[in-house]
Structure formats: C-alpha cells, structure tokens
Amino acid sequence: MNTKILSSLLLLLILASCKEPVLPGIKAGDPFFSNLAIADGQEHELEAGVNDYYLYSSFMQDNQGVYSLQGNLRPRDCSDCGPQLRIVFRDVKVRNTTEKPDPREIVRPGVYDFWGNQQDTVAYETHFQAEINQANSYTYNWDLGDGSTQNQQQFSHRYPTFPTSYGVSLQIEGNNCSSRLFQTIDVPKAGCFPSFKAQSLGSETEFNFSTQPLSGHTYAWDFGDGMGASGALTNHNFPARGAYTVCLLATGSDCQASICRNLYVGAVTGCAVNFSYQTQPIIERDSLGLGQIEVYWLDENGREFGASALPQPASSFFEVHAVEDYVANEKGEPSLAYSFSLKCLLFAGVDEMELEIAGGKMAVAFPE
C-alpha cells in the first residue's frame, strides 16, 4: 500500500482516538436535555452536550426512609458553577433500607406540589401567667393536664396537636394563705382567648364585668353563684360576701375559649390566685415531603436559590407532561427522562427570584 495513504490512515486513527468521550445518553450537538429557563427575566439556555453542560442523574435515601430522585444540568466537573438547574422528586412513601421504589410512581405525568408549600401545625406553644391579689412570697404548683407540672409564676408549655382540651389547675401557698383555680382550656382555639375586668359599683356585692368584644363573637358569663348573663358588658349583684369563681365563655364562628377568675366579694380578705394564658400554633413544613418536588437554581455567582424555603404563590406550578425510559447514567444506574414545565419563586435568604421553564426536559436515576 502507498506509504502516504498508510500515513494518512494512521493520522486519522490517532485523531479519532483523541476525541473527547461523550457520557452515556448524551449526544453532543444534538441535545436531548434542553431547557430554556427565564430566571428573573433573563433567558438561559441549558443544553446537555453543549458548552460543556451535562445532565447528572442520581438518587439517595435519607435518614427518614424517603428516596429522592434527581437530575442536575450543570457544567461538567464544576458543581458550584452556574447557571445550573436541579430538580428533585421525593418518594411517595417511607421505605425501609431493603425496599426499592418504583420510579414511575414517583415521576409520573401530572401536577406536583412544591416541598415546603404544605405546612402543618405540629404543636401549640401556650404561655401561662399567675396573677395574685396580694404581693407576697408564694409557691406555685401547676398541673397542666397532660401529665406535666410546673412551679414558676410564668412560663411557656408546648402541647401536642391532639388531644386539644386540657384541665389546668394552679395551687398557691404562702403567708398562711392558700388559693386554687381550675380551668379547662381548648388549646387550638385559645387565639380568641378572652379576658375580663371586674369593678365594684360601690355596693360591696355589686360589680360591673366587661370584656373587649371581638366582631362576630358572643359572650356568656357564669358568676359562680348559680347565676349567669350574656353580652360583653354586664352588671351582677352577688347574694352574699365570699369567694366566687367567675367564668366567661367567648364563642365565634371558628373559635371558642373561656377564662375563669377568683373574685373576693365584700369584706373578705385572703389571697386569690388567677392565671391567664395565650396560645400560638407552632407551624412547620411537612418534614417528609412525600410525592412533592424540589427545584433549585444556581446563578452565575454560585448562589443557590430554592423553591422550598417558603410557601409558593397560587400562580406557581410544576407539571410533568411525559415520562420515558432512558439509558443508564455514567454510574451505570438506570434512569428515566421526563418533559415538564414550571413557574415558581425561588428563595435565598431574604432574596427571591422567579423561574419559568416551558417545555423543558430532564432525567432522574433510580435504584435497581
């Protein structure tokens, strides 16, 4: 064979052997994974196999037993270079370490909720404060109705979400004086917690009772002597001197709460203990995020924004249009490709940005 022809063939073989390898499933020049993203009004075209971008798919199982299947479209060999897009699908249930998920249960056509958009009340933080009509040194013995006790004048206590009603009692002792008050509190409804004032009208047994009315609420009084009244403002004449426990029940369309107070009527001396309480719900995002989606965007400065930090507005959405089997990733793990569209807010600290993608395509890996 002609020496020049042999030399030319050898050169071609050498050049072919030096060609940069292409990762499995990614065909350079003909991007299968292409996403035109509009991030805060700026267009970014991210395509696997173009400008050294690759689609990295993976999966993991967290310590709560929830699998995450994800894809990350980013520059090769630079995990903190932007812009890049990462989408994570969370499993539909908790699994043990030997149970493998069905990826088509997790990645399927349909609309998804953003993880963090669903928030639950996980407990109720209730602040109690004892009030005594005489200044002195007292011991405080609280029974909080859930097996817990306290010995402070004021404190906060966390109740679970169920049950909701608790019988709370406070007993004080000191200076040869003892007083006790018992109240049934309905924890979730204590946001409409009432308070009231009792003022003598001159006669030692006649008092004016008043509360700050809330719109749409009704008020029922129990004066502890077998008598009652209604309304936010009322007068009552007690039948005799003595100690009475007066209760006020406030009822609204979605709320009911009561408050009781010890009251001395007439020339009766002694200590009288009362206590007030206020409740705030402890709201946390759904910690498992089953069947939900996570979306992350890394900008050109390497700052990551995520959709899960705060609840999304009503205009946000994430929808998968189609799912198909795809080739194994660079680790040999099986994968699925899917087409999608999204619009959402992304958060980084106090900053936020809007992300919109129409007709994008990504992939996830899953365990065999």
What is the element string, with H for helices and E for strands? HEEEEEHEEEEEEEEEEEEEEEEEEEE
Number of helices: 2
Strand content: over 45%
Q: Tell me the overall shape.
A: elongated
Radius of gyration equals 34 Å
Q: What's the structural domain tally?
A: 2
Output the strand order for the largest sheet. 2-1-25-24-23-6
What percent of the residues sit in helical stretches (DSSP H or I)?
under 10%
Number of strands: 25
Largest sheet: 6 strands, antiparallel
Q: What's the N-to-C terminus distance?
A: 52 Å
Mean pLDDT: 87
Features:
368 residues, mainly beta, Immunoglobulin-like, 2 domains, five-stranded antiparallel sheet, 2 helices, 5% helix, 52% strand, elongated
Element layout with pairings:
Blueprint: H1 3-17, E1 34-39, E2 42-47, E3 53-61, E4 67-75, E5 84-90, H2 103-106, E6 110-112, E7 119-132, E8 139-143, E9 149-150, E10 154-159, E11 165-174, E12 177-186, E13 197-200, E14 206-210, E15 218-222, E16 228-230, E17 233-237, E18 242-251, E19 256-265, E20 273-285, E21 293-298, E22 304-306, E23 317-326, E24 335-348, E25 351-365
Antiparallel strand pairs: 1-2, 1-25, 3-4, 4-5, 5-21, 6-23, 7-10, 7-20, 8-9, 8-11, 11-12, 13-14, 14-17, 15-16, 15-18, 18-19, 21-22, 23-24, 24-25
